[in-house]
Fold:
Amino acid sequence: GENVEQHPSTLSVQEGDSAVIKCTYSDSASNYFPWYKQELGKGPQLIIDIRSNVGEKKDQRIAVTLNKTAKHFSLHITETQPEDSAVYFCAASDPNTGNQFYFGTGTSLTVIP
Amino acid sequence: NAGVTQTPKFQVLKTGQSMTLQCAQDMNHEYMSWYRQDPGMGLRLIHYSVGAGITDQGEVPNGYNVSRSTTEDFPLRLLSAAPSQTSVYFCASSYSGQGDGYTFGSGTRLTVV
Structure:
């Protein structure tokens, strides 16, 4: 099956700085890559996603980039705020079924006021 | 409120006991799934369903059973609980599962002693 690696596992930034989280995947046939934010005690929430026919997608302060050749995708958060502090997960769709997702191990982001 | 509802939020079981984790969604989503979340391992798929009457195994199905008699409900059964099943369990749903982001429930924290 697909293997998704995520780095770093923890990340601390000053408020107002940018944060970047990177993921790699193993199967070049994967075609959908969502990102989730999980706040303490809650379920993950979809924040942005990208499909394999697109190289970049933005939504206000967050953006995702995809490099299909290198099989990696990244989450970029600009002008970070304390409420961005959470655990972020990347995922890649199962190339065979599309019904399963393989998740990275998560990045704990702390934004220091 | 529309969304995915999981019950109970917390549960302690003794080894060998059985129980059912409940999951219900009111968004008319065809696709539903169960994940477990363990420290350092991200989210791993246990079972999923693409519609009423159809279920399939995910990455870590052993020790768990599911059924899907209605579109709304997707219960997860632990037949004989083991300490290795101590985890946080999340139910998720999506419109089709084919490249759609999930809506997650708030989770069930299960401890098996």
Observations:
- The first strand of chain B starts at residue 4 and ends at 7.
- Chain B touches chain A at residues 4, 31, 33, 35, 40-45, 48, 50, 56, 58-59, 90, 92, 97-99, 101-107 (CB under 8 Å).
